[in-house]
Amino acid sequence: MSTPHVTDGLGTDLADQILALAEAARREDGVAPLSEHTILRVRHGAPAGSSRFHTVTRDGRVVGFAFVERIAGEPDSGELVVDPAHRRRGHGTALLRSVRDDAGPDGVRVWAHGRTPQAVSVAEGNGWRAVRELHKMRMPLRDLPADAPGGPRTAPELPEAELRPEVADRVRVRAFVVGQDEEAWLRANARAFADHPEQGQLTLDDLLQREVEDWFDPHGFFLATATDGSVAAFHWTKTHADGAGLTDGEPVGEVYVVGVDPDWQGTGLGRTLTLTGLHHLRDAGLPWVHLYVDGDNEAAVRLYASLGFEVWDTDVMYAPPSEGVAPASP
Residue 258: helix, strand or coil by DSSP? Predict the structure, then answer.
């Protein structure tokens, strides 16, 4: 077991090694160990003082990695991955200890994506406890035969994406325009996710980084704009070319982000925009759509279930043991 090296940034060589490591783990485990946000931080760097990178190396190669994002007033949020060829050697334990010891004043939480046996074993074996669940839900967009991955499935009928009469003359639904809508969307996103800093504190640089990703498609990014030009609600869809674990490589869709400005809550815009995006993905011929939703957000889970989504997998966030509780031996 090696002691992790902790830095505020990464060089190009280390970044490339970490991306390759994450891909090797994805192929081995069937689930991506690092979120898109972390991948972008590895690839593009992070604002000064916002992030910490923990790396374990053997013979000059990265065999373990953890990323931690720091948000004022909140516990640090982290993820970690160990090379499949170097597991069961204490590297996961070393990374957990490193992010705990390096944590900010509000502590740290670490995500285990897909709740894989390896991640659960490392977290729980070191006394970390589950404090949050993020459900991954899926829905077929077309009828799937018995020999299809995840099949057979019958696609549910999608209701039409109609605006309620009381808002129909106050907003219009249209696609995002690159170079025009960034600031208005950022304001709406910050207001819609004021209680969710992971999403609500996205910056213009964060948005621009996503705009140059291969998957970005403004035609699948829907806004409900008010007469004053402000964004009342939005639904940003995403297409995963690799199948996101739902197919053997056929592209699938994602309900990437749905948000409603607090002043427009209760107007039905969230449901309308959700359906707008789902129709877009279905019309593109995609077999599946998936999304992430907090396990304790019962209203959202009920909404998605009413449309035909089912829980498929769950990510778990772990917190370190309470002070005075010794972690397990590596």
Answer: strand
Tokens at 148, concatenated: 């299809």
| DSSP assignments along 47-81, one per residue | -TTSEEEEEEEETTEEEEEEEEE--TTS-EEEEEE
Sign of torsion over alpha carbons 26, 28, 31, 33: negative
95's enclosing H/E stretch is helix 91-101
Per the listing, tokens 């070393």 go with 94
Longest Cα–Cα distance of the chain, Å, equals 66
The 10 Å CB-count burial string (b at 16+, else e) for 44-64 is ebbeeebbbbbbbeeeeebbb
Which pairing describes strands 221-226 and 231-240: parallel, antiparallel, or unpaired? antiparallel
**pLDDT tens profile 258-296:** 999 999 999 999 999 999 999 999 999 999 999 999 988
CB 178, CB 212: distance < 8 Å: no
| pLDDT at 117 (0 to 100) | 85
Q: Is the peptide bond before 152 cis (omega within 30 degrees of 0)?
A: yes
Tokens linked to 106: 């509000």
Q: What's this model's pTM, rounded to 2 decimal places?
A: 0.87
- Tokens at residue 212, please? 């140059």
How many angstroms separate the first and last alpha carbons of the chain?
9
**Rounded Cα–Cα distance for residues 77 and 94 (Å):** 17
According to DSSP, residue 275 is labeled: H
Closest CA relative to residue 78, chosen from 125, 116, 132: 132
Beta-carbon contacts of 139 under 8 Å, excluding residues fewer than 6 positions away, are 155, 156, 288, 289, 290, 304, 307, 308, 309, 310
Length in residues, the chain: 330
Residue 323: count other Cβ atoms within 10 Å of its Cβ: 5
Are the C-beta atoms of 161 and 177 separated by less than 8 Å?
A: no
pLDDT tens column, 116-156 = 888 888 999 999 999 999 999 999 999 999 988 888 999 99
User: What is the DSSP track for 98-162?
Assistant: HHHHT-BTTBEEEEEGGG-HHHHHHHHHTT-EEEEEEEEEEEESS-B-TTSTT--B-PPPPPP--
